[in-house]
Design goal:
Elements: H1 3-10, H2 12-23, H3 31-45, E1 47-52, H4 54-64, E2 67-70, H5 73-78, E3 88-90, H6 97-101, E4 107-109, H7 111-123, E5 127-133, E6 136-143, H8 149-157, E7 163-164, H9 169-184
Parallel strand pairs: 1-7
Antiparallel strand pairs: 1-5, 2-3, 2-4, 3-6, 5-6
Length: 189
């Protein structure tokens, strides 16, 4: 887990509000171009989201092994609709700052329960995304188009790198999990 994830997990509400506030600057002539460029670099390299199909999200859950359910950060902060709040599936629990920093908000669930959440969210028309900070994928968010920060950044403010599509995202997640397993293995003596 990257050290910035602890900071983000403790103050995610402030970060999400800041992202939207900063994105509004993209509409200011001259300054907007620079803000959009910096935000796209940030989204592409540091903290961004990838759209998933339901089948891809289910495969991610299978690869993750242990999962936890908690509140959708975007909907919890912005509350633009009445969709359910507890729809964010945390993955990579051993390295997940959200689960360790906010244990009262998350509960461990089985892979089958996570897949049922994904199906229910799909039926409601919610968008499945997997969220990444640096090389760590930490959550499958099931958000709506009125609250989802990465979607709003992309569609309303032209920050396209905040939410992208990658045909091999499940494989990327699998590789990040494998790399994490190697990092946690005890060294040979």
């Amino acid at each position: 887990m990257h050290h910035s994830m602890k900071l983000y997990s403790r103050h995610r509400e402030l970060f999400l509000r800041y992202y939207i506030w900063q994105a509004k600057w993209t509409r200011i002539p001259l300054v907007g171009r620079l803000v959009r460029r910096v935000a796209n670099l940030y989204g592409g390299r540091l903290h961004g989201a990838y759209v998933l199909s339901t089948a891809e999200a289910e495969r991610v859950v299978d690869i993750a092994g242990e999962v936890a359910l908690g509140p959708c950060s975007c909907r919890q902060v912005f509350r633009n609709c009445d969709n359910p709040i507890d729809t964010e599936i945390m993955v990579s629990l051993e390295r997940n700052a959200f689960v360790t920093e906010r244990p009262q908000e998350y509960r461990r669930i089985t892979a089958e329960q996570a897949k049922e959440v994904l199906r229910q969210c799909h039926q409601r028309g919610l968008i499945h995304t997997i969220i990444r900070c640096r090389g760590d994928f930490y959550a499958i968010c099931n958000c709506c188009n009125c609250c989802c920060v990465p979607l709003r950044l992309s569609k309303r403010y032209g920050i396209g790198k905040s939410l992208t599509r990658s045909p091999d995202i499940v494989a990327k997640f699998g590789r990040s999990q494998a790399a994490g397993q190697v990092d946690r293995e005890p060294s040979a003596v």
